[in-house]
């Protein structure tokens, strides 16, 4: 009986965490003509990619840190 209760509790807790995190992460898409929100992206491990983007170090970077005159961002909506 305790084992069945524990399994049910784990399943319910997992569902609550999954549903809660998806609601937090889900936001409205950027509107046309508005400023894109700040996005943290991982710095590539490949040195060639890092050099291409003009980045150094480890961790994360923001899009304005890319050394380029123009940065084109393509957003895919999968669902």
Which features does this protein show?
mainly alpha; 79 residues; 2 strands; two-stranded antiparallel ribbon
Question: Could you describe the 3D structure shown?
Answer:
With 79 residues, the chain is mostly helical. The protein has one domain (2-65). Helices cover 39% and strands 5% of the residues. The protein has 2 helices and 2 strands, in the order H-E-H-E. The protein has helices at residues 2-25, 47-53, and strands at 41-42, 60-61. It has a two-stranded antiparallel sheet. It starts with a helix and ends in an 18-residue tail after the last strand.
Estimate what percentage of residues fall within beta strands.
Answer: 5-15%
Largest sheet: 2 strands, antiparallel
Strand order of the largest sheet: 1-2
Percentage of residues in helical conformation: 25-40%
Q: Supply Rg.
A: 20 Å
Approximate shape? elongated
Series of secondary-structure elements, N-terminal to C-terminal: HEHE
**Uncertain stretches:** none
Report the span from N to C terminus: 40 Å
How many domain regions? 1
Which structural class do the helices and strands define?
mainly alpha
Average residue pLDDT: 76
> How many distinct beta strands?
2
Number of continuous helical runs:
2
Explain briefly what this protein structure is.
With 79 residues, the chain is mostly helical.
How are the elements arranged and paired?
Blueprint lengths: L1 H24 L15 E2 L4 H7 L6 E2 L18
Antiparallel strand pairs: 1-2
């Amino acid at each position: 009986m305790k084992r069945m209760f524990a399994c049910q509790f784990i399943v319910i807790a997992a569902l609550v965490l999954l549903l809660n995190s998806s609601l937090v992460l889900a936001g409205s898409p950027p509107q046309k003509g508005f400023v894109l929100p700040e996005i943290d992206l991982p710095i590539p491990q490949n040195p060639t990619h890092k050099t291409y983007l003009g980045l150094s170090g480890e961790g994360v970077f923001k899009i304005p840190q890319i050394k380029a005159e123009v940065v084109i961002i393509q957003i895919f909506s999968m669902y």
